[in-house]
Amino acid sequence: KPVLRLAGIAKSYNHGKPNEINVLRGVDLEIATGEIVALVAPSGAGKSTLLHIAGLLDTPDQGTVHVSGDDMTGQSDRIRTRVRRGDVGFIYQFHHLLPEFTALENITLPQLANGVGKSTAEARARDLLREVGVEDRAGHRPAALSGGEQQRVAFCRALANQPQLLLADEPTGNLDPATADQVFATLMGLVRGTGLSALIATHNLELAARMDRQIRLEAGQLVPMVS
Ligand code: ADP
Ligand code: ADP
Fold first, then answer.
1. Using one digit for the tens of pLDDT, what is the confidence trace for 161-205?
2. Disulfide check for 121: which of 54, 83, 111, 183 has CB 3.0–4.6 Å away?
3. Which residues form the ABC transporter domain (predicted)?
4. pLDDT band at residue 28, thresholds of 50, 70 and 90?
5. How many Å lie between the centroid of ligand 2 and the Cα of residue 85?
């Protein structure tokens, strides 16, 4: 069973108005276990809309979304939220860490919210911080970390609850090119090491080429990129 399956996804905004915009026009996508897929899309193409639908933050007008084999179409908000918190990890261009909490706490808190005990959650947080090479920053708040370190901690938070699927929107887009390159390598190592599936949006074709498969969002549909 694919970890993510989108079939016939359509989404438009401003329905029936003169400024109606059909952002997605029949999107089909399957991501297998352990597969890392690059999503390449010009700004405004509908990348965020697609990621939000895949991550159960938004619903399509038409089509079906399966996460970990389960049909999410028409499910209640309560069930969609539970699946999202359990099965999906999100990474954004900006870290969105909680400023009042340390790096360790930012990774521990989502686990506590999911019912994991404190010592188990902290041990997992430390393991993750070690994997991305920032274990010595565990006690610092986000403001005390460099941009690259902040993103590394955000990766750990996204993986804290052991999701099946990682959705990332320009995960290194905020960093200078040299840092972006290193931080991206860290992300790839983390994802490959855990064997989870990922859909990673990027404008950077060099980064896209390091993933298993590249697709482009064009005129509301996904088209494979030939390299
Ligand atoms: P991307 O992430 O690729 O830049 P988005 O998915 O954010 O694209 O948006 C795709 C298009 O849909 C854009 O033209 C945007 O202005 C429009 N759009 C996005 N969200 C809304 C909304 N809530 N209401 C109306 N239009 C929207
Ligand atoms: P929380 O446990 O903090 O209530 P949610 O279940 O609301 O989290 O969200 C799960 C994930 O989805 C989080 O990583 C959060 O950053 C992200 N998220 C929630 N709402 C939105 C949104 N409107 N736009 C983008 N990402 C969101």
1. 999 999 999 999 999 999 999 999 999 999 999 999 999 999 999
2. 111
3. 4-226
4. very high
5. 8
165/97 Cα distance (integer angstroms): 20
Distance from the CA of 46 to the center of ligand 1, in angstroms?
Answer: 6
In whole angstroms, what is the distance from residue 200 CA to residue 36 CA? 7
CA-nearest residue, atom 21 of ligand 1:
13
Task: Walk across the sheet containing 88-91 and list its strands.
Answer: 88-91, 165-169, 197-201, 36-40, 213-218, 221-224
Roughly what angle, to the nearest 10 degrees, separates helices 147-159 and 103-113? 20
Indicate which residue's Cα is closest to atom 23 of ligand 1.
Answer: 13
Mutate to test the pocket of ligand 2, among 48, 90, 155, 156 (most ligand atoms within 8 A of CB): 90
Instruction: Give one word for 62, left, alpha or beta, with left for phi > 0 and alpha for psi -120 to 50.
Output: beta
Distance (angstroms) between ligand 1 centre and the Cα of 117 equals: 39
